[in-house]
Design brief:
single chain, 285 residues, mainly alpha, 0% strand, elongated
């Protein structure tokens, strides 16, 4: 074993990270590139430390190390990082991401390849939007891009992303009702609720209206809520009397107790009396 390689072995055995870095730096200057990489391959600790160094100081060397190892997974990761950290043009970023897709495919990492392909598609779409409307969309997540478009009343573009990226129905409905309520577009929200049967039910419509301080609109959706949630819906909009009617009809003592817990000294005494009467009837049976 050469003296320099022996020095590396002793440095590793010492556990002194700084000493290992010093020896590795010496070897790098003393040996040709191929021999240097081969020496590190035989010393995993030194190789790991050198990779950490290259990650921050010499990224291109890191790529060479991965190439020598045929480590396609890490090469893919390298190109993704490079796309976001080193490239400033859309063409450069897309080119790096495409290289990442190629490496992930070689590594047979189908999920990473598909996710990166989707990111390329999103970047191109965002860039096209940016040119059309003069507003920055680049680097927003898919979720945030759709939300932003909905808030800007660009429903056609949001629907296009929903279809192109196969966004699950439930997620898209949540995004859309949240955006419409945030901007106070109650007419569009009601229209959307009637467009087809809601995949998320109608309680979210009630809750989102109340969240934005509009119980008047919230009451429109209580009637559409599933029977099991109807009492909750009436309570949320502050209609305890209707909540009592529904719970009594359902002969549900637990729901009646829930309504009773919401009553305060200011609550109409007739409501409390109705609850107690209904509970008595349930207990008799």
């Amino acid at each position: 074993m050469k003296r320099s390689q022996l020095a590396l072995l002793k440095a590793i055995e010492s556990g002194d990270t700084d000493l290992v870095y010093t020896v590795v730096a010496h070897l790098k200057n003393e040996m040709n590139r191929g021999d240097f990489f081969m020496t590190l391959q035989n010393q995993p600790v030194a190789l790991s430390l050198y990779r950490q160094f290259c990650k921050h100081q010499e990224p291109e060397t890191l790529k060479d190390l991965f190439n020598q190892d045929d480590n396609h997974q890490e090469l893919g990761n390298f190109y993704v990082r490079s796309s976001y950290c080193n490239e400033t043009t859309i063409e450069g970023r897309v080119a790096n991401l495409q290289s990442a897709v190629d490496e992930y495919n070689k590594a047979k990492h189908e999920i990473a390849a598909k996710m990166t392909e989707d990111q390329i598609k999103l970047l191109r779409y965002q860039y096209r939007l940016q040119k059309e409307v003069g507003k920055t969309y680049l680097d927003l997540s898919l979720h945030d891009t759709v939300s932003t478009l909905l808030l800007e009343s660009k429903h056609k573009q949001a629907e296009q992303l929903y279809k192109d990226f196969k966004i699950p129905d439930k997620r898209f409905w949540w995004l859309k009702i949240a955006a419409l309520a945030e901007k106070g577009d109650w007419e569009e929200l009601e229209k959307f609720s009637k467009s087809k049967k809601s995949p998320i039910g109608y309680m979210p419509f009630v809750e989102i209206c109340v969240k934005h301080h509009n119980k008047y609109e919230a009451k429109k959706y209580v009637a559409k809520v599933n029977p099991e949630q109807k009492v909750k819906g009436h309570i949320i909009v502050g209609d305890l009397e209707q909540a009592v009617e529904v719970a009594t009809e359902r002969k549900n003592e637990s729901e009646l107790n829930t309504i009773l817990s919401k009553c305060t000294p200011a609550t109409d005494q007739r409501i409390v009396e109705k609850i107690n009467a209904a509970k008595t009837q349930i207990l008799k049976k």
